[in-house]
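hiii, so i know i said id send this last week but things got crazy w the move. better late than never?? heres the sequnce for the chain we talked about at the cafe, plus the structure i predicted for it. fair warning i was half asleep when i ran it
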Amino acid sequence: MHPFLAMQREMTRRHLLQHSAAGIGMAAVGSLLARDGYAANSNSSSAALPGLPHFAPKAKRVIYLLMSGAPSQLDLFENKPMVHKMRGNELPSSVQMGQRLTTMTASQAQKRLLPPIAPVRQRGQSGAWVTDMLPHVASIADELCFIKSMHTEAINHAPAMTMLLTGAEQPGRPSTGAWLSYGLGSENDDLPTFCVMTSRDREGSCGQLFFDYYWGSGFLPTKYQGVKFRSEGGDPVLYLTNPPGIDGSLRRELLDDLNRLNQIKLEATGDPEISTRISQYEMAYRMQTSVPDLVDLSTEPQHVLDLYGKDVTRPGSFARNCLLARRLAERGVRFIQLLHSGWDQHQNLPTQLKEQCFDTDQPSAALVQDLRQRGLLDETLVVWGGEFGRTVFCQGDIDNKTRHGRDHHPRCFTIWMAGGGIKPGMTYGETDDFSYNVARDPVHIHDLQATVLHLLGINHEELTYRYQGRRFRLTDIAGKVVSPILV
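okay and structure toks below
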């Protein structure tokens, strides 16, 4: 027997009435909303939730430059004369206070103080401290807001990254980009609301794993998850190109037939994942035109390519991803997440940190400058940082000039932000004389998340989703907006 006939025979009267009522009711509501101009395509993620934004936003979109592996705040952004003075001495127990360490240094016999490996100087009118290893970021210091008092509970990479991006150390929650896609929708129906790109250090010395749940939708419908662009080889997004013998018109006919079958199943079961599948097929079809235009850099003037550095034409490089991020921002993509691995210098700090800075310094600064020159910076929030910081004491032998490093350090670290309602040319928060504990104006991960949502016009306590009997939110049960850094 035909499967649809079999299903009809097995359907009870109660099921029939439920499905029929839902179908008639939804059709009626849809026609009324369409007549009044309020209806959005139910299979599209373009529409914002009712009532959002909660208030006038300062930013329309976010570009998150995520330095995976944890940049050393002491080597990059801190001026601590006491550490220079006490080089090689043991970290005072009054500073360490018996706090948790990783298994890599908890049993280390000595915890000797290690100053920055390159000079850290004051920059611009703001006087922000930036290392010589980041000359391009140093040149735009007056456009940035440095937060030096970030802290988190997680002490290992995956839990800390998960906490930073989803608000919890355990996988399963929606990522920040998914929350924004769910709450605010998209400004461009031809591109995903949430795009992700990854890159790695040139040396390939320590590549942190990029788990899919870093840009996942968790318990939200899967249409809100990030779309990852492939860095090398083939289409930027899988299945973008038609197979041999299939042209655009034939693909459209096949897609229409497939959507009709999916719609029948959706009406029969009400499974929201079928709705997601329909919308994603349609998005993929539209992306056949929008994505090739997006990744075609031939239209970029040479001076713009030069701004991002010589790596900008290399597929998979951080520089190229930064330029693509600007092009995505121009096209109204809501959340753009760039992850660059390798900031995990346990034993190769003297050599590898410089490589990481070289890979990311010029493109990061260029992105801010490019957005400003195009009038996009005021409405685009740029965030740069890692999942935690690194220890002031040396991991390994401090007397070995090439083989030593720093361990993980969640109790204080530095990020910078620019554009999108952020006060430029300021430094917020302060660490102690050893860059070991927060001394003033602490900012927790949840506070950062609350601030990002606030800049997009969202009250972080009100963007929720009911799941397993509880209303969840990105900031869990904590978080406060860091008002002093806002314009």
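btw The mean pLDDT is 88. thought thatd interest u
miss u guys!!
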